[in-house]
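Letters spell out the chain; backbone shape is given numerically. Take this protein:
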Amino acid sequence: MLLIHTLILPCMACSKSDSTSVMDTTPSTLQSEETGSSSTEKGPVDFPDLKESDDHFFINEDTKYEKLIQAVIQSASVNGYHGVMLLATDEEIILFGAPGAMAIDNTPSDPYTIYEVGSISKTFTAVMVMKLIDQGKMRMDDYLAKYFPEYKAGREITIANLLNMQSGIVDYVNQAEVFFAGADRDPEEIITTAGLTDEEFLSFLYAQDLQFEPGTKTRYCNTNYHLLALIIEQLTGESFGEAVKREIFDPLGMTHSSAMTVGDETSVPDSTIGYHQFQEGARGAGDIHSCMADMIVFDRALFDGDLISVKSLTRMKDFKDGNYGCGLFPYGEHAYGHSGSVACYGSENVVFETEEFGRVYFIASTADPDCMMGLESIVSQLTGYLKNK
């Protein structure tokens, strides 16, 4: 049941290796090459001339970033991290690294190598909801019964409850045996290879009692964001994947990103566990594929106020009970973002608000399940380093 417990849970364990220092080498322009059948032409991100360092790291030579770069590279080395990572501000790329990360064609991963980002997808879902709210097509205080009239508990649950993980609904992924009680198939099979129709999903949902009164507790639940995706489809008349493409991917030029794709859309092998097909059952909760170059475009646009209104962005960063906003976790007092974990893939997408550098974005993905806890450690150490910057 590994799949059931890894869609949104924190990362696991990672080996250690010798520390790596930044070395003077011949400057190298960071080039992008196709990394798999799903790669396309390069996107809109400008990767300037970055200096090549050890272990496939490329760094900005501005001295103001030197200690920050050293801290990240050392942390990656100590934690034995294998994967891609990007460190940037709103104006500059500070670092790109791909230590030990290889694409399907056995070439080093690059900024356009596609990974599955798991529950980072929830940030995209929240943005889609906020767009519809900005357009006057839905409200935070709408009750679910408006969209699912047959759902009796929907008379108590609002859109805000779903966004803030305060609905009381059973999690169809991490509590699959409860959610799918009485099913004639294995729960893992239902949400992966066998597929899960909307009718099936809703029939199981309607049969469940709430675990607590909506709005009284915060409990992470994938079901909340899957329901939001279904509502987005009702209001747009499109599939969730089509709506995200039209509203986010296409306007931002995120040509290496997709939602609701079935099959292996990544550019990195998944030989350890095997690629899991979620069919349409994960949409809204964990269905996005993307790359470092696309993710930084998304982050910059979102947090600079180009995607949604100031009011909606402020609402996304309003962490109810200090636990969860709208598609965002708090990462300390002045940082926020989301993690993702599904099958062998682990990702982090974190924004740090600093006085010295402005907003600092850290984005990372790995296809090595043994490096997921190491990735968490890197984020923790980076959080500590930037805390007083």
Observations:
- Residues 55 and 99 are 5 Å apart (CA to CA).
- The longest helix spans residues 222-236.
- The domain at 119-288 is CATH 3.40.710.10 (Beta-lactamase).
- The chain has twelve helices and twelve strands.
